[in-house]
Amino acid sequence: VQLVESGGGSVQAGDSLTLSCEVFGSDFSVNAMAWYRQVPGNQRELVASIDDNGRNTVFLNSVKGRFAISKDGTKNKMYLQMSSLEPEDTAVYYCHALVKIHAGTYQIYKYWGQGTQVTVSS
User: Fold this and answer.
1) Are the C-beta atoms of 39 and 93 separated by less than 8 Å?
2) 24 Rama class: left (phi>0) / alpha (psi -120 to 50) / beta
3) How high is the pLDDT of residue 75?
4) CA 17: distance to chain centroid?
5) CA atoms 97, 3, 93, 43: torsion sign
6) Does position 110 have pLDDT exceeding 90, yes or no?
7) Which of 8, 44, 63, 122 has the highest CB neighbour number within 10 Å of its CB?
8) What is the DSSP string of the chain?
9) pLDDT for the residue numbered 95
10) Among residues 122, 67, 54, which one has the least CA distance to residue 93?
11) What pLDDT shows up at residue 113?
């Protein structure tokens, strides 16, 4: 199983950006997914999460009202729509997924993407 992110880049404050994360592999199903971000020297923090059916979401307080998270279960893809971006949103954004492997004991594992840089300048 592999998580591939895309959509990062450099933007100006107030701009919008959408990140995508797609899960690739075979014989699996995706449960909850989330976006985290990390600034050098700081701990990775949860930005937003979405449950397996896409009905329940959680957001970091500082992004509430500006970011939206969604998923396309048929394509095993997740999106983070970011608007009114601020310089404080600058970070490497990581996709995270809980994936059930359909083999053996059908365990659930945690997977991370490679990260995508988002830079917001004032």
Assistant:
1) no
2) beta
3) 78
4) 13
5) positive
6) yes
7) 63
8) -EEEEE--EEEETT--EEEEEEEE-SSEEEEEEEEEEE-TTS--EEEEEE-TTS--EEE-GGGTTTEEEEEETTTTEEEEEE-S--GGG-EEEEEEEEEEESSTT--EEEEE---EEEEEE-
9) 98
10) 67
11) 97
**Ramachandran angles phi, psi of 87, nearest 5°:** -55, -30
54 contacts: CB under 8 Å, gap ≥ 6: 70, 71, 73
Residue 100 and residue 106: Cα distance in Å, rounded? 6
Residue-wise pLDDT tens digits, 51-98: 998 899 999 999 999 999 999 978 799 999 999 999 999 999 999 999
**Which CA distances in Å does 51 have to 10, 20, 33?**
29, 16, 6
